[in-house]
Amino acid sequence: MSPIRSPEGTPASPGGVNRTGKASPAAAVKDAALAALVAFGLFAMMVGLRTEIGPEGALVLRQRWGDVAILCLLVFLGRLVLSLWLGRRRIAASTAPGRWTARLQQAGRLFAPAMLAVALTLPAITQGDRYLLDLGILVLTYVMLGWGLNIVVGLAGLLDLGYVAFYGIGAYAYALLATEFGFSFWLGLPVAGILAAFWGVLLGFPVLRLRGDYLAIVTLAFGEIIRVVLLNWVSLTGGPDGISGIPRPSFFGLPFTMSGGEGSFAGTFGLEPSPSHRVIFLYYLILGLALLTNWVTIRLRRQPLGRAWEALREDEIACRALGINVTITKLSAFAIGAMFGGFAGAFFATRQAFISPESFTFIESAIILAIVVLGGLGSQVGVAIAALVMIGGFEIFRDLGEYRMLVFGGAMVVIMVLRPRGLVGTRTPSIALGQKRAISGELVGEGHG
Amino acid sequence: MAYALQQLINGISLGMIYGLIAVGYTMVYGIIGMINFAHGDVFMVGAFIALITALLLTAGGVLAGPAGILVMLLAAMAVTALYGWTAERVAYRPLRGSFRLAPLITAIGLSIVLQNFVQVSQGARPKPTGTLLPGGWEVMRQDGFVVQFAYTQMLIIGITLAVLAVFTVLVTRTPLGRAMRACEQDRKMAALLGIDTDRTISLTFVIGAALAAVAGTMYLLRYGVIDFYIGFLAGVKAFTAAVLGGIGSLPGAVLGGLLIGLIETFWSAYFSVQYKDVAAFSILVLTLIFLPTGLLGRQEVEKV
Amino acid sequence: MPLQVLLQVQDVTMRFGGLTAVDRVSFAAAQGQITALIGPNGAGKTTLFNCITGFYRPSEGAILLHPPQRGPGAAPVALHRLAGHRIARAGVARTFQNIRLFPGMTALENLLVAQHNALMATTGWGIGAVLGLSRYPAAERAAVEKAKQWLHATQLLERADDPAGALPYGAQRRLEIARAMCTSPDGPALLCLDEPAAGLNPRESEELARLLLAIREAGTSILLIEHDMGVVMRISDRVVVLDHGQRIADAAPAEVRADPKVIAAYLGEEEVA
């Protein structure tokens, strides 16, 4: 078995480095032995005995005690190393802006433009490398989704576990408009966004009164309802087979054809026809859409609507006492967040040329939400970094095969335990008389929703 | 009539399974105010442990009747409880008192970990066990339609009621139950009064996981096929049940579970199987619009 | 000049289940005055307050506001029928017993959020402002000026860029008052303060009293719940006393102080200074 780190290998495992502080070697060994014992309890049956379908069709057990021993040993060693080397330092959740955050904050001013510069020149840097550009497109799609959801969760403080529904609505709206009614991308894009926003409001209405986890489960339910309908309304959506043959985007009317003839992109600009033209175009398209999302969010944050969202997250009752229409404010957050989800969906549809309900499962919502929380609620740069780390990292670990998701989930746990307030855990004021100073995450609210 | 009766039996036994899982959600929510998203997957682990135990017993040639099922139950409860304990220790305890969304994300991460751990260790293909406990009691016969109360269904209803009874006594009559309720009301104050809150919370996870393991074993006996993915849908349904009943309320969780089970079963029987989840979720949304804190949930008084 | 009625509370009753927290209470607050609402703990002051400011809907009775700018004889605004967020627009601003600032936002941002409605109107529903096609920049400059003016009045100007949650307690109390004062373009018609002096030291109480008098001079009437009798007796023009949900006195401070019913209500509870 490949050396996966079990959950017990993580810092805060049984025995509690937190409590012991400095560990004497004997205590550390005892502690590690205990951890290994727990690991044995966890793995003995699940790993040691594998159920397989036997020759006669009945289930049989295959024994793999070696793997169990390796896992227990790894847990033992991991635990020992942790308590001996790191035992002196309290390994605990830190929310205060530590050394690292402070540095990130300082670097932030340079970092964001640097990231933007890399993003803008990526096709040149990679010299049209198809794989890297595709990866770039994927990461940017999640950056955009993260920024869109950030409006709802990060700014307005409304916990939305069904964001993928708007992504799906946008994708299906564009796909149907394009295949059934021949809409071009540039016409279909806004319509898809508006439709998604409309559904955002529709969802928003019933859930306005709900708080916290009630809101979470209703949004989750909404996401599932949309997926099940997409799956079963075969006459409209094609059911599990999805919609294929969605028109690929053209360069403002000039198609990317390989023949390079008159009226094609390559022909018009006198270029050698190449399949990478379309990829580069798609890359800049999603970059543009993502930057649009970012630009709108940044602008709105400095304006009454954005401030009202943040105020809503901080204290809804106080908002009401100040005469802010809480209903409209919440709905506007839902609608604008959903609209950007819809844009991203339309882009996804045109890029893939094929969509099916499988792309819009709960796990997508969970990943987008994880990107927002890991990045730091409300932080645009943080969300971008989190998307890059999570999605890019996920691709880099492609070789891990079936262990990839395991590592992905484990990474989510570890990052969150170490940095509960996300990578950028501070809030930047929207306006200041003097210099804008970052506000510690400790003071910033999370909303009731 | 006969058809409806059969659906009623099916709906109740399914609802009991949801109810058992929902109790785990609602307990954890009550005590630390977080959605333990990995709870559905803990249920799935429970089903797998039960399956492996059953296969071990078969290999040893001792699987037979009630004793075998009891062993499966106990083994599943013990091992799954360890999973629940570890989950709390690794993913939730370090975040105690931290931001509310952080444990939600670790819970989702843990859910991914558990699913993929089982997929890797046990394989992705569904595990058909066949019927471990065939047969049933013929309730009535009408126009050639036989209403059957399967032994597995009796078992589910019987064991669920027994487990819930024990559990209710535990929560209402024992020092542990008092400690749990105290932590629920005010964790800081409970700690000041000398209650070991960490231990109490650990035990809550352990009990919740053990109940999920009971549900997993019942699921295995009833449906005879499991895979690493069953936890997600069952978890979402059970969470829906907990919210429907009013999260934090134990009777509410069971009531919500029964309702979800019945809605789903009747909807599939009379309307369409494909849209049964939509029906369950729609009822949830409708209920919450009119009762924003669920059926039996405490009405939150807005303090100004 | 005869006093003009600003706020009229008529037979307001508030029941929670079987408990009657406020029982047919009537009183009036006059334009340009500071009216104090006092009473022992549990007398129903905050409940009545929440009815006036739209957080509760009274079980019975009416609450009418006669905004001065509408002139005498104009129809009053029925506050008890307005949606919560409309109360502030009608000219009634409030603070909370447990301070409710936006702790993660700076003092300045808090005051800008208070001016939300006025600012929002200039942005063309947000869309115009995103595109930069509106009167918004000028409006924002004006809003910042107004905020600075109130930060100055509450001695918070140098802390404008600090998060509200990081301010000391007394400063938070002052900031909440400043925020309430920013809700209407010319200051609200009525400012409702729920125990503004709670937790303040004597010097801070003294400053608070001066601030409230200044607010009254600027044309905003004040309705005040307060336990600090020193403050109440010094600055109030009229005092309404509640006990067990009922009004037991409504008179000038000196009269209330001598009222045997009031003394009886407070005995064992608190001393009337």
Please render the helix and strand layout as text.
The complex is a heterotrimer of chains A (449), B (304) and C (273).
Chain A: H1 17-20, H2 25-46, E1 49-53, E2 59-63, H3 65-85, H4 99-125, H5 130-155, H6 164-181, H7 185-207, H8 212-232, H9 234-237, E3 243-244, H10 265-268, H11 275-301, H12 304-314, H13 316-321, H14 326-352, E4 354-355, H15 362-375, H16 380-396, H17 404-418
Antiparallel strand pairs in A: 1-2, 3-4
Helix pairs in contact in A: 2-3, 5-11, 5-14, 5-15, 5-16, 6-7, 6-8, 6-14, 7-14, 11-12, 11-14, 12-14, 15-16
Chain B: H1 2-32, H2 39-60, H3 65-92, H4 101-122, E1 127-128, E2 136-142, E3 145-150, H5 151-173, H6 175-185, H7 187-192, H8 197-223, E4 225-226, H9 230-245, H10 250-270, H11 276-290
Antiparallel strand pairs in B: 1-4, 2-3
Chain C: E1 5-16, E2 19-30, E3 34-38, H1 45-52, E4 60-65, E5 77-78, H2 84-90, E6 92-94, H3 107-114, H4 116-122, H5 127-131, H6 136-153, H7 169-181, E7 190-194, H8 202-217, E8 221-225, H9 229-235, E9 238-243, E10 246-251, H10 253-258, H11 260-266
Notes on the protein architecture:
The complex is a heterotrimer of chains A (449), B (304) and C (273). Chain A is built from 17 helices and 4 strands. With 449 residues, chain A is mainly alpha-helical. The two termini of chain A are 43 Å apart. With 304 residues, chain B is mostly helical. In chain B, the strands form 2 sheets. In chain B, strands 1-4 form a two-stranded antiparallel ribbon. A two-stranded antiparallel ribbon of chain B has the order 2-3. In chain B, a hairpin with a 2-residue loop joins strand 2 and strand 3 (145-150). Chain B has helices spanning 2-32, 39-60, 65-92, 101-122, 151-173, 175-185, 187-192, 197-223, 230-245, 250-270, 276-290, and strands spanning 127-128, 136-142, 145-150, 225-226. Chain C has 273 residues and is of the alpha/beta class. Chain C is 37% helix and 23% strand. Chain C has helices at residues 45-52, 84-90, 107-114, 116-122, 127-131, 136-153, 169-181, 202-217, 229-235, 253-258, 260-266; strands at 5-16, 19-30, 34-38, 60-65, 77-78, 92-94, 190-194, 221-225, 238-243, 246-251. A 6-stranded mixed beta sheet of chain C has the order 6-7-8-3-9-10, sandwiched between helices. A 4-stranded antiparallel beta sheet of chain C has the order 2-1-4-5, covered by helices on one side. In chain C, helix 8 links the parallel strand 7 and strand 8 (221-225). In chain C, helix 6 crosses helix 7 (169-181). The radius of gyration of chain C is 19 Å and the shape is globular.
